[in-house]
Specification:
Number of helices: 8
Largest sheet: 3 strands, parallel
Order of helices and strands: HHHHEHEHEHEEH
Structural class: mainly alpha
Low-confidence stretches: none
Strand order of the largest sheet: 3-4-5
Mean pLDDT: 93
Helix content: 40-55%
Distance between the termini: 32 Å
Shape: globular
Strand content: 5-15%
């Protein structure tokens, strides 16, 4: 999907997609947004739930754990995810790319902490994600970070911003039951 986006925008892998779009003059900015949203809409129709998603969310809900979302997607893919894979589940707040600045800036995660009135900022939060943007945002906000590892991001498993790495979302349940522990070097 990201390769398609970069091809549509004619930008290299080293250029941030959202930053590039926002740097464009009108009407090129609107045209870029339309192109990227079309790619995201097509991708969301192919979306599958991550292994262990339902088990983890049920576990967290059963323990009264609040859940928020912080994504660089626009609202349609988020709505699709919630309606098709997490019906009836509560996530608040939901931070999409319309929130500025987007990840990797920690502002979205800090906004969640503020909305929940956490006295420690984001220090008691856990950011679960699958990208460098997720790990950077979580780390810079002060949250623990959990990398959902795959063949596409294995290089991030040992990154200094990654607290722990898992292969399935339900692996996090055992970590929470046993007492979540981050890597030594943080």
């Amino acid at each position: 999907m990201f390769a398609q986006m970069r091809k549509a925008l004619k930008i290299p892998k080293t250029t941030d997609i959202l930053d590039h779009m926002h740097s464009l003059p009108q009407p090129a900015q609107d045209e870029a947004q339309i192109a990227i949203r079309a790619i995201e809409r097509a991708a969301m129709l192919q979306q599958e739930a991550q292994p262990g998603l339902d088990e983890l969310i049920t576990y967290l809900e059963g323990r009264g754990v609040r859940m928020g979302l912080c994504t660089r997607n626009f609202d349609a893919p988020v709505t699709h995810l919630l309606q098709n894979f997490l019906p009836g589940k509560t996530f608040f707040p939901i931070i999409t790319r319309e929130f500025r600045p987007p990840k990797p800036d920690p502002a979205g995660i800090l906004h969640i902490a503020q909305a929940w009135k956490l006295e420690d900022g984001a220090d008691s939060l856990i950011m679960v994600g699958d990208s460098m943007d997720d790990m950077v945002a979580g780390f810079k906000a002060g949250a623990a970070t959990v990398l959902l590892s795959s063949k596409d991001n294995e290089g991030l498993e040992e990154h200094e911003y990654t607290s722990v790495a898992i292969r399935r979302l339900d692996e996090l349940m055992g970590m929470l039951e046993g007492g979540f522990e981050e890597k030594e070097a943080r």
